[in-house]
């Protein structure tokens, strides 16, 4: 079913699923080797569809919360035993709730539809069925005693027994729970001082009284055990709201598997793909879900830029041992944008030893990059070899069906009904980046809302006229954006990238950062460097702030539209 790297043979898996389910739900006299099912259970199983098999892990989907609850509680052992036997590997599974539209491509087109059992389900709905929230709204926590049996022979580390693997996940005493975040060392205050996560809603953040910008909606902070400053983890980046398709199914399944069973099979896990395709969303989702399942586990999410800064600071302050303690006593280390470790020899040296310490202890390592390891040409060979030793999974540009699903999900989150022709317009014009896709939707909504116009194909075309992808090979660089923005606001380019905090300068700088995110494919760290060597979280905040402003302020929306026109005209000339 899978190769050693966990490559999913999705079509074969779906066919096997259908064959197994047909045999299982047939009359007992036809095949008595399966556990017996009630009519109700057969009907519920008929509402569950396979998405992908990655290694030993099945990702399933249904639009019925009733089906999900029943499968994950009363039928979990039966499903596990049946599919482990039939597939020849000890499988585990999780079930996603999807809308009817999202389920459409997964629906079975066979004659065996369990129609005889649907009346019983209809009666339950009529009686006011309410699922148990603990079974529906979160996945059941895996039993650590089963971790050693989760790994297929080709993926298990022979030198480490299942008992040893279980011993690598102890309770952690005085260590703080939750997601550990990188410490800032530039002496500045946290960029996102206000935070609305449920864990700290009752008490203000220590920096709230300051004059720094407030946190973007949907971010949450976690404090590391060393008392360092906080870094945002986006609470909107969860597995539940990640839209899957053929371009990202394996990466999604692998990320979910390592969150549930860290250190068991895919270690390290490296997710690669171009900017704007959802890698960071998946990495944040791992951190959220792993923390939800094991609140006492020690987790750190960090960008390679912050890892480098942290290491440099540890040298300058004589705190190397503290650095080692904070990075090597983790249960889960997530490092984003590892391509930026290239050329940083001292950081690579330290990360190599950190990697080895965690890996040998059976701790999970998750990495992301904008290219596969063999293309990281200036990365040390021994570190590249470590990156290649686990599962490497790519995320590709989403296909039309996935882009349509993303737009539908985003519109639903804003309580909007997006007309089909508008959805098709955006999805067909923006094919390469999810960020561009969502940015186009934001502009359409802002254009119609601020102009008090109906959401139609004509208004969408008008809103997107200035940012439609060009047919020619025009190149837009951060410097071009900075120059045009500076001229527009009667400022100098040096003021845009400088340290000035006057309102006019700060606003122009944030609009410039927003436009760079819209019009270029550069990563957050690279854009931060272009704007005077700023931290990537500054760019992230600016993008969120201007994105909100253009939906509320007509003047800002018009300025962004005008600047987009000028930048594209300058690029063509």
Query: What is the CATH H-level superfamily of the largest domain?
Result: P-loop containing nucleotide triphosphate hydrolases
Counting DSSP H or I runs of 4 or more residues, the number of helices is: 24
How many individual β-strands?
Answer: 11
Share in β-strands:
5-15%
Largest sheet composition? 6 strands, parallel
Estimate the mean pLDDT confidence. Answer: 75
Decide which structural class fits the backbone. alpha/beta
Distance N terminus to C terminus? 53 Å
Q: In angstroms, what is the radius of gyration?
A: 25 Å
CATH class category name of the largest domain: Alpha Beta
Outline = flat
The domain count comes to 4
CATH architecture name of the largest domain = 3-Layer(aba) Sandwich
The CATH topology of the largest domain comes to: Rossmann fold
What do these coordinates show?
With 573 residues, this protein is of the alpha/beta class. The protein has four domains: 10-149, DnaA, N-terminal domain (GMP Synthetase, Chain A, domain 3, 2-Layer Sandwich); 179-394, Rossmann fold, CATH 3.40.50.300; 400-467, Orthogonal Bundle (Helicase, Ruva Protein, domain 3); 478-572, Chromosomal Replication Initiator Protein Dnaa, Chain: A (Orthogonal Bundle). The chain has 24 helices and eleven strands. It has a six-stranded parallel sheet with strand order 4-8-9-10-7-11, with helices on both faces. Strands 1-2-3 form a three-stranded mixed sheet, sandwiched between helices. The chain has a two-stranded antiparallel ribbon with strand order 5-6. Strand 9 (332-336), helix 13 (345-360) and strand 10 (364-369) form a beta-alpha-beta unit. Helix 21 (503-519) crosses helix 23 and helix 22 crosses helix 23. The longest helix is centred in the C-terminal third of the chain and has 19 residues, at 554-572. Residues 1-11, 108-219 and 222-231 have low confidence and may be disordered.
